[in-house]
């Protein structure tokens, strides 16, 4: 047991924070979020070439760094701190999906392409009635010449910029995972306008899309999808924890400077106590996040099972979602009038807190997952 | 960063578990799971004997250096010991103030003579200690201490007069450590001394405080020309504040993990009741049980982060400052959850005149959790000022 960063992990965190400071200050973020793609292509290229974070979880054989989940969390936390607009999250989830299906030449080459900077997005849900397998809205039917896909998937992060989609589709016997390129006939993906502009989203429509047999990576993907989504919740929580900590920092900086009644408003207990509550939530979510990172590492290496991953993900997601929304919402309050202006960044954190809190299941849904593990069945 | 224990650590875990299961039997079987917070008045004689049994097995003060009888146990081993202790139902430690507060303070600030005089009694489980900090007019404002210490030249002894309050286990203790004013000219945290005083003397009177639970864990302690020798002051007159603050830093060590295992048994009991009386199907209760579970796990990982950080720079980081606020709020909410899970039956006592069930005690006593050891409001001040660097509240002039 050693629940602190190794020297290498600490170096990675320092590098990540320095790089983010360089490419993702407030004005860069504001520029990127209103651009057509919703991210800055040049920063993405630098991230892929100089940082190589897209390769952190990719096996060495495919050109990746083959590092751990904790390392992936470290960079996502730094990105969340800066509201970085980036398709990295998409490619990491795709990486986890590709690592979880039976080995194949297609999966191997997709992992290589992720390392080369291609954006690969998992398209799995209509998010109705839920974010899991119940929400899968694409159907796959098998014929003489291979598979045919039809239907919709929504809320695909940076899907409009994806080179390739990993599509979860329901076939006669369960769920499968299929590969389709964005320029294939019948594939149509379009960005949707979102309240949080820093995490661009797209809808995917598939009309009679033909997929050759070898591009079906799994026909038994249901359990795997659950585990991949659990891992994705932990990755998202890293973004949330980074954002929560920064919301606190921005707010404390602001109240230190703001003078009323002849003193810094940071000296009022009403303000201090709110800030203390923000820190308690943010740091506790951070502890859960790092623990979840360790458990996800154990899951990747086969030491712990899907149940442990599921519990860790649900706990972390609930805590991080709440912590971010609380710190960003309280942050607006501590900023007073300027908190609701377009000019100050705290409102951008508030919006990202809202969008990430709901994505892949809100805290209430996550607590129900925990409740099911604790209260239902024999265990 | 990883959460897995080494094979050697797991072996240590098995050793601890074996010893506990072999020894928590016979006369000690009845004290399993008893004597924790809110239950400290129970089985005191048995728990005193248990301290000595633990000491004979080499399981007291395991984090101390070997030279003073400890095992020099690593943080991991201390975590494991506390977890296994709580898992086995080890009773609330009557020796914990000596082991976790007085001992480390002596090791850090005491003279060799003081260490030789006091450490062996703590180590062997023979001497029990209590803490004399709070006073009627010095609660959260500890610097307002009014108990006086005057050095009597002819007898070469310190004479202590004043009153302490909220002293747990005072009526069972052999010694008390006391902060008292050595310089009456000074009003704040200056001019204080840190004294080691025997309880069994004419100048010391203990009066229990009956709580809302009907039981009495806390006491008032009156000092009326109580005495201690010239050697029984740690550091110099005027060093008292420094020593006292150092001691508070020891308060949030590995014993927090053991405390959490007790919390886990309480939560398990609530879950068991919820499943059996159907409240586990109530969506609102499900949310709160899940939240309690998540909160307890967060507490554990907060502690592990804090303890792993100690290995880095020997100081407790920002995580340590949130600990008290976090657990006390969590525990208080758990008490209310217990009542809501019990439903109408929560109101019914086990027996007259006022015999509370375990969860009823939990509900009532957890109202103290957010007060003693620094109220939640004081904790928030500490977090804001020390962890977040926000300005201190200006001090008033009223006395």
Topology (elements, then pairings):
The complex is a heterodimer of chains A (379) and B (399).
Chain A lengths: L6 H17 L2 H8 L7 H11 L17 H13 L6 H13 L4 H11 L4 E4 L14 E6 L2 E12 L6 E8 L2 E8 L5 E6 L8 E11 L4 E3 L3 H36 L1 E2 L2 E2 L4 H32 L5 H30 L10 H13 L4 H13 L4
Parallel strand pairs in A: 1-4
Antiparallel strand pairs in A: 2-3, 3-7, 4-5, 5-8, 6-7, 9-10
Helix pairs in contact in A: 1-4, 4-7, 5-6, 5-7, 7-8, 7-9, 7-10, 8-9, 9-10, 9-11
Chain B lengths: L6 H17 L20 H13 L18 H13 L8 H14 L2 H12 L5 E4 L15 E5 L4 E9 L9 E7 L10 E7 L5 E6 L8 E12 L3 E2 L5 H11 L4 H23 L5 H31 L4 H25 L15 H12 L6 H12 L12
Parallel strand pairs in B: 1-4
Antiparallel strand pairs in B: 2-3, 3-7, 4-5, 5-8, 6-7
What does this protein structure show overall?
- The complex is a heterodimer of chains A (379) and B (399).
- Chain A is of the alpha+beta class and 379 residues long.
- Chain A has three domains: 7-115, Acyl-CoA dehydrogenase/oxidase, N-terminal domain (Butyryl-Coa Dehydrogenase, subunit A, domain 1), CATH 1.10.540; 120-218, Butyryl-CoA Dehydrogenase, subunit A, domain 2; 222-375, Butyryl-CoA Dehydrogenase, subunit A, domain 3 (Up-down Bundle), CATH 1.20.140.
- Chain A is built from eleven helices and ten strands.
- Chain A has helices at residues 7-23, 26-33, 41-51, 69-81, 88-100, 105-115, 222-257, 269-300, 306-335, 346-358, 363-375; strands at 120-123, 138-143, 146-157, 164-171, 174-181, 187-192, 201-211, 216-218, 259-260, 263-264.
- A four-stranded mixed β-sheet of chain A has the order 1-4-5-8. Chain A has a four-stranded antiparallel β-sheet with strand order 2-3-7-6, with no helix packed on it. A two-stranded antiparallel ribbon of chain A has the order 9-10.
- In chain A, helix 4 crosses helix 7 (222-257) and helix 9 (306-335) runs antiparallel to helix 10.
- Chain A is globular and about 80 Å long.
- In chain B, strand 2 (148-152) and strand 3 (157-165) form a beta hairpin.
- The model of chain B has no long low-confidence stretch (mean pLDDT 91).
- Chain B has 399 residues and is α+β, with helices and mostly antiparallel strands.
- Chain B folds into three domains: 7-94, Acyl-CoA dehydrogenase/oxidase, N-terminal domain (Butyryl-Coa Dehydrogenase, subunit A, domain 1); 129-240, Butyryl-CoA Dehydrogenase, subunit A, domain 2 (Beta Barrel), CATH 2.40.110.10; 252-387, Butyryl-CoA Dehydrogenase, subunit A, domain 3 (Up-down Bundle).
- Chain B is globular.
- In chain B, helix 1 (7-23) runs parallel beside helix 3, helix 4 (96-109) runs antiparallel to helix 5 (112-123) and helix 9 (318-342) packs antiparallel against helix 11.
- Chain B has helices spanning 7-23, 44-56, 75-87, 96-109, 112-123, 240-250, 255-277, 283-313, 318-342, 358-369, 376-387; strands at residues 129-132, 148-152, 157-165, 175-181, 192-198, 204-209, 218-229, 233-234.
- Classes of the chains: A alpha+beta (379), B alpha+beta (399).
- At the A-B interface, helix 7, strand 10, helix 8, helix 9 and helix 11 of A face helix 7, helix 8, helix 9 and helix 11 of B.
